[in-house]
Amino acid sequence: MFYEGMDRLFYFPVGLWLIQILMILFPTLFYQAYFKRKFQSVTKRKLGLIFIYGLSILLCMAFPVSINEGYILDFRYIPLILGFLYGGYQVGFPLLGIVLSTRFIIGGEGIYLTIFICFVLLAILHFSLHKYEKFDSKHKRLYALSLLAIAIMIFGFGTQFLDDQVLSGREFVLWILFATLNIITMLSTRHIHESLLELDKINFEITEYERMHLLSQFSISIAHKLQSPITNIHNSVEIIKTMELPSNKRAVVNEMVEELEAAQNIIRDYLVLAKDQNSQKMKLNVHSELEATLHSIQSYAQMHEVELKFFPAIDKELTVKGDPYQFRHALLNLIKNGIEATKEDGVVEVAIHEMLDSIYILIEDNGKGMANNEVRTIGSPIQSQKKNGTGLGTLVAFNILKSMSGKIEVSSQLGRGTTFSIILPKTAG
C-alpha cells in the first residue's frame, strides 16, 4: 500500500507530519496574503476559507501515518476546527463533509471513530460557538486548543479500547509527538490568522484616519470660506439695524442678527474643534485667564440680567499647561451655557480651588438644571439642552479640557441648577 511505503520511508514519521504542518500553514498564508485582500465580499471570503481549509484537510489525509490496522494519524482536525471558528457553520459544515467523505474513501475501521469525533465536536460547537467572538484573545486560544485536545483524546482512547492492545514504546512516543505537534500547529496557525487580522484592522484604521483627515481639511477649508461672507452679511445687517425701521421690520432684522451670530459661533466652534489640540502648549495663569474670560462675557451676562460672581483661590499664581486661546474658549462656552440656563436675576458663580496636584475650577448656576439622562449625554455631539442648540460648544469645551489632561464632572438637579467641575493638573511654578 502507498501508506505503508511512506511509513517505511519515514519509520519515525516526523517527516510526514512536517509535510502536513506545511500543508496547513502555506494555504493559510496564501489566503491571508492574496485571497482575502483580493476579494472583499464576505461570501467570497468564506468560499476562500472552504477552499484553503478543504485543501489542507485533503493534503493532510493524503499523507497520514498508519498506526493500527485501519487507523491513521493526521492533522485534519486543525483546519476543521479553525474553519468553524473563523467562518462559522457556513464554512464548517462543508469542511465536515470533506473530512467524512475523504475518510470514507480511505476506508478502514477508523471511519466510525472519525464520525463519533465529528459528532462530539459539532455538539460542543453548537452550544458554545456563538460565544467565541465575545472571548478575549487568551480564552479564544484556550477554546481552540480544548476542541483539538478533545478530538485527540477521543481518537487516542478509541484506538486503544477498540483494538484492545497495549501501547508499545514506539507508539507511546508517537502519540506524545503527535499531540505536541498538533498543539504547536494549532497555536502557530491561529497566531498567523490573528496577527494578519490585526494587521488588516490597523490598515483599515490608517485608511479611515487618512480619509477623515482629508475630509476634515476639506471641511475646515469650507468653514473658512463661509466665515468671511457671513461676517460681511452680519456687518451689513448691523448697519441696517441702526436705521429707522418699522417695528415689524426691526423684529426681522434682530432675528437675522441672532441667526447670523449663531452661525458664526458654530463655525468658530467647529474650527476650534478641528484644530490640532496639541499645539501651542504653554504655562497659563488660571486666575488671569478666568478674569479675562469673565470680563469678556460680562456684557452678555448683563444682557440676560444674570450676576457673575468670581471666587479666586488664595494662591493667584496657580498654573496649568495649554493653549491660551483654546482654554479661554472652553471656559467661555461653559460660563455662557450657565448664563443661558439661568433665569433673570439668577447667579453664575465661578470659583478656583487648589487640592494637592490639581486645580479645580467650579462653574455653578442656579438655573433650571438637568435630568440624569441629560447629564449623561452632555458633551456628546449634537446633544444640546438649548432650543435650536447643536451641543457643539460644550463638545468643544470638553475636548479642549481633555487635551489639557483635564477631567470634567457634571452634577445637576432639576430646578436647582448645574455645576461643572473642571479638574486640571497643576504645573510646577
From TrEMBL:
Q: At the top level of its lineage, which domain of life is listed?
A: Bacteria
Domain Histidine kinase, residue spans:
221-428
GO MF term list: ATP binding; phosphorelay sensor kinase activity
Indicate the enzyme's highest-level EC class. Answer: transferase
Q: Name one GO cellular component term.
A: plasma membrane
Tell me which EC number(s) this protein carries: 2.7.13.3
- What phylogenetic lineage does the species belong to? Bacteria, Bacillati, Bacillota, Bacilli, Bacillales
Its topology with respect to the membrane?
Multi-pass membrane protein
Write down what this protein is called.
histidine kinase
Catalysed reaction(s) here are: ATP + protein L-histidine = ADP + protein N-phospho-L-histidine
Recorded hits in Pfam families, A to Z, give: 5TM-5TMR_LYT (PF07694), HATPase_c (PF02518), HisKA (PF00512)
Q: Which PANTHER family match?
A: C4-DICARBOXYLATE TRANSPORT SENSOR PROTEIN DCTB (PTHR43065:SF46), SENSOR HISTIDINE KINASE (PTHR43065)
Per its UniProt record, what InterPro entries does this chain match? HATPase_C_sf (IPR036890), HATPase_dom (IPR003594), His_kinase_dom (IPR005467), HisK_dim/P_dom (IPR003661), HisK_dim/P_sf (IPR036097), Sig_transdc_His_kin-like_C (IPR004358), Sig_transdc_His_kinase_LytS_TM (IPR011620)
- Where are its TM segments located? 12-35, 47-65, 77-99, 111-129, 141-160, 172-189
Per UniProt, which keywords does this protein have?
A: ATP-binding, Cell membrane, Kinase, Membrane, Nucleotide-binding, Phosphoprotein, Transferase, Transmembrane, Transmembrane helix, Two-component regulatory system
Q: What is its main location?
A: membrane
Q: Which organism is it from?
A: Mesobacillus persicus
Can you say where in the cell this protein is located?
A: Cell membrane
A GO BP annotation: cell wall organization
